[in-house]
Amino acid sequence: MTLGFSGNVHTRFAYRAYIGMSFVRNELKFYVNQNGTFAATNDSDNRVIYGVELEYLPIGGLRLGGGIFGYIDTDKPRFVTNAPTYDANVFAEYTLRRWQFGVNADFIGKRRWSGVANENGVAPIAFMDKGDIDLGVRVNYRVSNMVDIYVEGINLLNSQIYDYAYYYRSGIGFKAGVKLEF
C-alpha cells in the first residue's frame, strides 16, 4: 500500500514523493552461518517505505536530479537482511543529438546481516557495512531507435561495496555493450 504525489513546476522542475506500508509474511531471508556461508530462513517484517525524487532541466539537453529512498521497520524482525536503511542518488545527464553523457553517485546506507551464534540462537548482527558511495560515468550512442552502444565506468572511487556479507565488489569496473530495445 503506497500513497504519493508528483508534479511539475513549469516544464523545468519535476518532483515525486511517496510513503507506504509493506506487510511481508514468510519472507525468505539469508543469514551468515558460523563458517561464513549463507543459509536461508523465513521471517516476517512490517516496514514503512518512503521516497522523494527531484529532477531539474536547466537548459536543453541537461538533466540534473536525485532522490532518497528508504524504510523504517515497524516491528523487530528476528533476522536482518542486507537491505540498506536508506539509498540516495544524484545524477547529471547531458544529451547532444545521438550522444548521451552521464555521471551518477549512489549513496548506500548502512547494511546489516544476521548470523547464527550457536545452534540455539541468532546473533542480531553478524556483519555490518557502514555504507558506501558508488560513483559512475557512462556514454551512450544511439545508433537507431532500437540500438544503443554504451560504455560505463562503475565504482570509480574503488569503494568496498558489500552486496552480501563478507563479499564486496572488487575494485573499479568498466562495462561496454549494445542495448537492444524492442
In short:
The chain is mainly β. It has strands at 2-9, 13-32, 38-56, 62-73, 86-96, 99-108, 111-118, 121-129, 132-142, 147-154, 162-164, 167-168, 173-180. The protein has a nine-stranded antiparallel sheet with strand order 1-2-3-4-5-6-9-10-13, with no helix packed on it. The protein has a two-stranded antiparallel ribbon with strand order 7-8. Strands 11-12 form a two-stranded antiparallel sheet.
Radius of gyration: 20 Å
Largest sheet: 9 strands, antiparallel
Q: Which structural category fits the helices and strands?
A: mainly beta
Total strand segments: 13
Helix content: under 10%
Number of helices: 0
* Order of strands in the sheet with most strands: 1-2-3-4-5-6-9-10-13
N-to-C SSE string, H for helix and E for strand:
EEEEEEEEEEEEE
Distance between the termini: 32 Å
Give the overall shape.
globular
- Low-confidence runs (pLDDT<50, min 5 residues)? none
Strand content: over 45%
* Overall average residue pLDDT: 86
Please outline the helices and strands.
Layout (H helix, E strand, L loop, with lengths): L1 E8 L3 E20 L5 E19 L5 E12 L12 E11 L2 E10 L2 E8 L2 E9 L2 E11 L4 E8 L7 E3 L2 E2 L4 E8 L2
Antiparallel strand pairs: 1-2, 2-3, 3-4, 4-5, 5-6, 6-9, 7-8, 9-10, 10-13, 11-12
